[in-house]
Design a protein that fits this description.
Elements: H1 2-44, E1 74-77, E2 80-83, E3 88-91, E4 100-104, E5 112-116, E6 133-135, E7 142-144, E8 151-156, E9 163-169, E10 174-175, E11 178-181, E12 185-189, E13 195-201, E14 204-212, E15 215-223, E16 226-231, E17 238-246, E18 249-253
Parallel strand pairs: 10-12
Antiparallel strand pairs: 1-2, 2-9, 3-8, 4-7, 4-9, 5-6, 5-8, 11-18, 12-17, 13-16, 13-18, 14-15, 14-17
Length: 286
């Protein structure tokens, strides 16, 4: 009996030692593997240990233009850029008479874009002491109005990955008096006024945002029917983003030289398009 007991006690340290040794080998091997992977990707230029968390430091996430080490977006050619959250697209010689359009590639999205001059200098005032902040349109694009030819676009992208988008210029319809429809629409207005008359009929919601050189401003979010004035910050050019849902039909009449909303292109005095071609628009509720 005593012999068997002594044999078991002597074997236990040997098994524990083997287990500890095996654990140590696995732990060290894991560290070496991680180090090799990091070295490989860093050597290939596809791994940035300092910025792997997704872009600019947290201290500059909401104001990347103030960072001492801004992140430039990669120019892939043909107007296509790629970057992380807070990355900057530098453009020179921009035609200030045309909007800058940043269109996301499939599987990418933008929360918006801040705009400064070169070196992060604020040229046009936005909200408070911030640069102009342009929100994404209903279709995912970002439309930007500027008043200087050399600009930097600071992209508010995903926190945990990269974005890819294409820069283009112009391509939006311009209106001067009346525009209407049953679907969402984006258009430019350069009539110089800062008010308009909005009418909506049918069953649905209407939301209107405008962009000037000072950034994006939401001017209305309401349920149809409605008939009211809307206003926005003075600007020589204004970009309208009208989003409608359901069966809401909308009509925006801009002031003419006579000081009142102009007639519709068809001469129809109805404040909004008729919900159907055959039936008249419903009368307003008293």
């Amino acid at each position: 009996m005593s012999s068997g007991t002594s044999s078991g006690a002597g074997a236990r340290p040997t098994a524990d030692g083997r287990l500890a040794g095996f654990s140590a080998v696995v732990w060290v091997s894991g560290l070496l593997l991680v180090a090799l992977i990091a070295w490989f990707f860093a050597d290939e230029g596809g791994f940035d240990v300092a910025g792997f968390d997704g872009g600019v430091d947290d201290d500059y996430r909401l104001s990347p233009w103030t960072s001492d080490t801004p992140i430039p977006a990669e120019d892939l050619g043909g107007g296509l850029y790629e970057g992380r959250d807070g990355a900057m697209i530098s453009l020179t010689g921009v035609d200030v008479g045309e909007p800058i359009i940043l269109t996301p590639e499939p599987e990418s999205y933008f929360g918006g874009v801040w705009v400064t001059g070169p070196a992060g200098r604020i040229v046009t005032a936005g909200d408070g002491h911030e640069p102009p902040d342009f929100d994404s349109l209903g279709d995912g694009r970002v439309a930007i109005l500027v008043e200087q030819p050399d600009v930097e676009l600071w992209v508010n992208g995903p926190n945990d990955g990269t974005w890819r988008g294409r820069v283009s210029f112009g391509g939006l319809d311009a209106v001067t008096d009346v525009v209407s429809g049953f679907e969402s629409d984006v258009f430019l207005y350069d009539g110089g006024e800062s008010t308009a008359r909005l009418g909506a009929r049918g069953d649905g919601d209407v939301m209107i945002s405008v962009a000037t050189v000072h950034g994006t401003q939401r001017v209305l979010s309401a349920v149809s029917p409605l008939d009211q004035s809307i206003a926005w910050q003075d600007s020589p050019r204004v970009l309208f983003d009208v989003q409608s849902w359901g069966d809401a039909g909308w009509r925006i009449g801009f002031p003419t030289d006579a000081g009142s909303p102009g007639p519709s292109p068809t001469g129809d005095a109805s404040p909004v398009p008729s919900p159907t071609d055959d039936a008249p628009a419903p009368e307003a509720t008293p």
